[in-house]
Automatic annotation (TrEMBL):
Keywords: DNA-binding, Transcription, Transcription regulation. It comes from Roseomonas haemaphysalidis. This is LysR family transcriptional regulator. It comes from the Bacteria. Belongs to the LysR transcriptional regulatory family. PANTHER family: HTH-TYPE TRANSCRIPTIONAL REGULATOR YBHD, NITROGEN ASSIMILATION TRANSCRIPTIONAL ACTIVATOR-RELATED. It holds the Pfam family LysR_substrate. Residues 1-59 form the HTH lysR-type domain.
């Protein structure tokens, strides 16, 4: 696979935009890396990068070649995974891009349960908003994405979809904690601690409140659910997220569903890059997640 190592040089320069930084990550000298790239450009008969004082930027030909490199790398990983599966090793790495709500409890529990049966499989997880997760799939940086309320995308292949309602999270002693179900207009009477607008939950809230006479008064906006939870624990503010990641076992917090009449819900979707054959470990973990999410739908 020595040619793959050379192709990785090109890919690393594209990812970093810097010859010096790429050389440091690859543990080669910058001059050696530049010679390798020059050799490839000579073979192809065209420059792959534009050299500028601000860094290295792929040309149109470079973008095409880098896309091909990443596709080849993904296919090689899938073949290697199948060979290992035939030998009974059950090795592999599962790369996942997920919404932050899934990283709090659901996904860690599922990964631990999977590794109990397949201890030679490891995981690499990146927490992304839905646009970032879809980009990670397209760039072959992730095998699977588990994201809430993704936008339409022609390269996205959903494997399973599960409806998720928003829940309100507040201190256990909050005045609204005594109610089993809340309306958004009830919540508007208190300060709001909201995820930023890159989150699907925030987008749904904004859409639902756009036509409301009552408005949420934002006391805190953050890109961390953990920060939002800790904030509402100490006052009368209320935060919101999807039900699957809600802290239902925290005695200091109360979790209450938003009434269906407010239409505060959206899809949680497990998916992959359309047309891609997943490595064995990723495919098997996707099957497990689909089964678990489907079971959650049946319970709901």
């Amino acid at each position: 696979m020595r040619h793959m190592r050379v192709w990785r040089y090109v890919d690393e320069v594209a990812r970093t935009g810097s010859l010096r930084l790429a050389a440091a990550r690859l543990n080669v000298t910058a001059s050696a890396l530049l010679r390798r790239i020059a050799d490839i450009e000579a073979d192809l008969g065209t420059p792959l990068f534009e050299r500028a004082p601000t860094g290295m930027r792929p040309t149109v030909a470079g973008e095409l070649f880098i896309g091909w490199i990443r596709g080849q790398g993904a296919e090689l990983e899938q073949v290697r995974s199948r060979i290992e599966d035939l030998s009974g090793l059950r090795r592999g790495r599962v790369r996942i891009a997920c919404s932050q709500a899934l990283a709090m409890s659901f996904l860690p529990a599922e990964m631990a349960a999977f590794q109990a049966r397949a201890p030679l499989v490891d995981f690499a997880v990146t927490v992304r908003d839905h646009d970032g997760a879809l980009s990670a799939l397209a760039e072959f940086e992730a095998d699977l994405a588990l994201i809430f309320n993704p936008p339409p995308n022609a390269d996205w292949q959903p494997l399973l979809q599960l409806g998720q309602r928003l829940v309100a999270i507040m201190a256990a002693g909050h005045p609204l904690a005594a109610r089993p179900v809340l309306r958004l207009r009830d919540c508007a009477a208190f300060p709001a601690a909201l995820p930023d607008r890159s989150f699907g939950a925030r987008q749904i809230l904004d859409a639902r409140m756009a036509g409301h006479s009552a408005k949420l008064r934002v006391a805190l906006e953050a890109n961390s659910f953990e920060l939002l939870r800790q904030f509402v624990r100490h006052g009368e503010a209320i935060t919101f997220q999807i039900a699957i990641g809600a802290p239902t076992d925290d005695p200091g917090l109360a979790v209450r569903p938003i009434d269906d009449r407010d239409l505060a819900h959206g899809p949680l979707v497990l998916g992959q890059l359309k047309g891609r054959t997943l490595p064995v470990a990723a495919a098997k973990f996707a099957e497990r997640l689909a089964e678990r999410l489907d079971a959650a739908r049946m319970v709901g």
